[in-house]
Write a structure and sequence with these properties.
- The complex is a heterodimer of chains A (227) and B (190).
- Chain A has two domains: 10-55, no CATH class; 65-226, no CATH class.
- With 227 residues, chain A is mainly α.
- The radius of gyration of chain A is 31 Å and the shape is rod-shaped.
- Chain A has helices at residues 10-17, 23-35, 37-55, 69-82, 89-92, 107-118, 139-147, 149-166, 172-198, 203-226.
- In chain A, 65% of the residues lie in helices and 0% in strands.
- Chain B is mainly α.
- Chain B is built from ten helices and no strands.
- In chain B, α2 (23-29) packs across α3 (33-55) and α3 packs across α8.
- Classes of the chains: A mainly alpha (227), B mainly alpha (190).
- At the A-B interface, α1, α3 and α4 of A face α3, α4 and α10 of B.
């Protein structure tokens, strides 16, 4: 309770300024403020601050937030990969010829199935991050991951050359599905390479890039063996 | 203060249908990354503003924006449309930022115990040119005081809500807020 003789407390001044007093409290405070220059000046300054806060526009980034999306997308795709059950028995039971075509509808399926097949298999050339360790790989191996990109690309080229020789042996729908899924993986790799170039110190991006390379190589190996 | 409630921009209040889940959100919930990208482009600026004000650092804010939207993707299926997506994202963003703060021992101590010993003195609050805006002044507040100030005076959370979110007592939150306002007054209106 305020009085004309006693200054407003800090609680009363702040509550008056941010308008959280009850009507009765406010009436009493107003009576004091009308008679006390010291309290009135202080409350006026607080009220000015409140107004300034309300009128201040939200801060804007100096660099467009659109630039963050590739990294966010990469992390999302990675989270799809790591959420796959470790054994993925349903996938493993499919025949080698059809296992990766049956229900592939896009990037997610290709990535998931690729990871499922990769688990427990020997890794590719220069493979610094094993499939089971993808989410928690340490920094030293990440450097090797980037270094191994060239090796993956070389192996992919060799496998593609071999596959080209056997293309006639593939069923048309198989060849079409292969072309589609390779395109999906290549787009993912291209996006990730761009993202890594923009954010070279991001370990999640580099892990996902290495994973994508392995998936492409593994897909090609599978098709080569099946054909 | 009733100016803004759980969202610092008008975008949050106008882009969602608070009465239900729109088609874009539903598609994102089913795993459509392109739909989620659309949500990101709609809400990223508001989430950035929240993170920027709570951390006072642009680089950290950009990191946090990523964390918020990755978390949103992971939890999107739990969004039931009881509030607008913007409000849901906003609360998620507050939690992500607070988790980041708690992960730093020094800042966690500040959040719980108050502020450093010099906060509140005239010498610790640098006089800022009047042309410098509120956000520039916020950077000079200790993180705990800044957090409470942003949550209450900018984002519109009550002291009880802040107490629940941060783990500090409502009375402590209130005291932090008052001290933050006083410090800002000295900086903005020396």
């Amino acid at each position: 309770m305020t009085s004309l003789e006693t200054h407003l407390t800090e609680d009363e001044r702040q509550s008056f300024a941010d308008d959280t007093m009850s009507p009765e409290q406010r009436a009493s405070a107003e009576a004091h403020l009308a008679a006390c220059r010291s309290c009135a000046d202080d409350v006026a300054r607080l009220t000015t601050l409140m107004t300034r806060i309300r009128e201040t526009p939200a801060p804007s980034p100096t660099v467009a937030l659109d630039d963050l999306w590739p990294t966010i997308r990469a992390r999302i795709e990675q989270s799809k990969v790591v959420s796959l059950p470790a054994d993925a028995p349903a996938v493993r039971r499919l025949s080698p010829r059809v296992w990766w075509f049956g229900s592939i509808g896009g990037v997610a399926a290709a990535v998931l199935i690729g990871m499922a097949v990769m688990r427990g298999r020997p890794t590719g050339p220069g493979d610094a991050v094993g499939p089971g360790t993808t989410p928690n790989a340490g920094e030293p191996s990440l450097i090797a991951v980037v270094d191994s990109a060239h090796a993956y690309e070389q192996e992919a080229r060799i496998l593609l050359d071999k596959l080209e020789l056997r293309r006639a042996m593939l069923r048309p729908e198989t060849a079409e599905a292969l072309a589609h899924d390779l395109h999906v993986v290549d787009v993912a790799i291209a996006e990730l390479k761009e993202a890594v170039a923009r954010d070279p110190n991001n370990p999640a991006l580099r892990r996902l890039l290495a994973t994508s390379y392995r998936q492409k190589v593994d897909l090609l190996k599978r098709v080569s063996n099946a054909s | 203060m009733s100016a803004r409630v759980h969202g610092s921009t008008d975008v949050i209040a106008t882009t969602d249908d608070a009465g239900g889940i729109d088609d874009v959100v539903r598609r994102a919930q089913r795993g459509d990354v392109e739909a989620f990208e659309s949500l990101y482009r709609t809400h990223a600026a508001a989430i950035y503003a929240l993170c920027r004000r709570m951390t006072g650092d642009e680089g950290e804010s950009r990191d946090l924006v990523q964390d918020v939207f990755v978390r949103a993707w992971e939890r999107l299926t739990s969004f039931r449309g009881q509030s607008s997506l913007g409000t849901w994202l906003h609360r998620l963003g507050v939690n992500v930022v607070l988790e980041r703060i708690r992960s730093t021992k020094r800042d966690a101590a500040r959040l719980i115990e108050g502020d450093d010993s010099t906060f509140g003195s005239h010498s610790s609050a640098p006089a800022i040119d009047a042309s410098i805006d509120l956000d520039a002044a916020l950077v000079h507040l200790p993180r705990g005081a800044r957090t409470v100030f942003v949550l209450h005076d900018i984002e519109g959370y009550s002291h009880d809500e802040i107490a629940l979110m941060t783990g500090i007592a409502a009375g402590t939150a209130r005291a932090q807020l008052w001290r933050a306002r006083r410090a800002l007054m000295r900086m903005l209106d020396p």
